[in-house]
Design a protein that fits this description.
By secondary structure, the protein is of the alpha+beta class. It is built from six helices and 14 strands. The chain binds zinc ion (ZN).
């Protein structure tokens, strides 16, 4: 649903004990943490959504997964079992993937652009929840946020074989007319980890061409604007 706060617009979902929240670029709400404006807005977010803290990583297009501990480390996924901490990912075309385990009460936020997807960061994050926290993949709920979709996401054809060859061999529809369907790649990675397809939710919104919402798109605008997509576990 749409949640409007201070003329800013968020897309929010509640499921079991978790909230999944995606910022938009309405009224130029920018979460680029390298700018003072972005850091100030992260503080604002704590008030807006009643968060004890906001946790994130220095994103480096890796497959490194960090546990939230109140500090900022390098990586592209962040995990927590703490309540009222918003753990999230900054994007402006890449794919934010938010994950929640209702039984173990654990959440993860994953930054999966094409590089992270080619390194299977989402599959590795699921593996981390299963191996380190005892999650059962079938209990996981996944939300895939706004990103540059197959309508707009141009990708070189030699790179398809280099980075997504295994998936492309199985399903040629991930790459049509020089456009990559990154979400479909993530679906395969989630399925490989035995996440149930009925628990995978997509917002079905393209950062590049959405008319319904305003989003930052790095490829379209070359701007420093970033959205912040986060998951928060509430108290029972
Ligand atoms: Zn599009």
């Amino acid at each position: 649903m749409k949640t409007i706060i201070d003329n800013y617009e968020f897309i929010t979902f509640k499921k079991d004990n978790a909230e999944f929240i995606f910022s938009t670029a309405k009224n130029d709400l920018n979460f680029n943490k390298d700018l003072k404006e972005g850091r100030d807005n992260l503080k604002l977010l704590q008030d807006y959504f009643n968060l004890k803290d906001v946790g994130y990583v220095n994103q480096i297009h890796s497959s490194i997964i960090q546990e939230y501990d109140g500090t900022v480390k390098s990586g592209d996924a962040i995990v927590t079992d703490k309540t009222n901490i918003g753990i999230g990912i900054f994007t402006a075309d890449c794919m934010p993937v938010l994950i929640y385990d209702k039984n173990k009460n654990i959440a993860a936020a994953v930054h999966s652009g094409w590089k992270g997807t080619s390194k299977n960061i989402t599959g590795k994050a699921i593996g981390c929840l299963v191996d380190r926290y005892g999650s059962c993949a079938k209990d996981l709920t996944v939300y895939i946020g706004p990103h540059n979709r197959e309508c707009c996401y141009e990708f070189g054809d030699s790179a398809i074989y280099e980075y997504f060859g295994d998936i492309y061999k199985k399903d040629k529809s991930i790459y049509i007319n020089n456009k990559l369907n990154l979400e479909k790649c993530i679906y395969y990675q989630l399925m490989d980890k035995e996440v149930s397809s009925e628990n995978i939710n997509t917002l079905d919104l393209c950062t590049y061409c959405s008319g319904e919402y305003k989003f930052y798109s790095y490829r379209r605008d070359k701007s420093s604007g970033r959205m912040f997509s986060f998951v928060v576990i509430r108290n029972n």
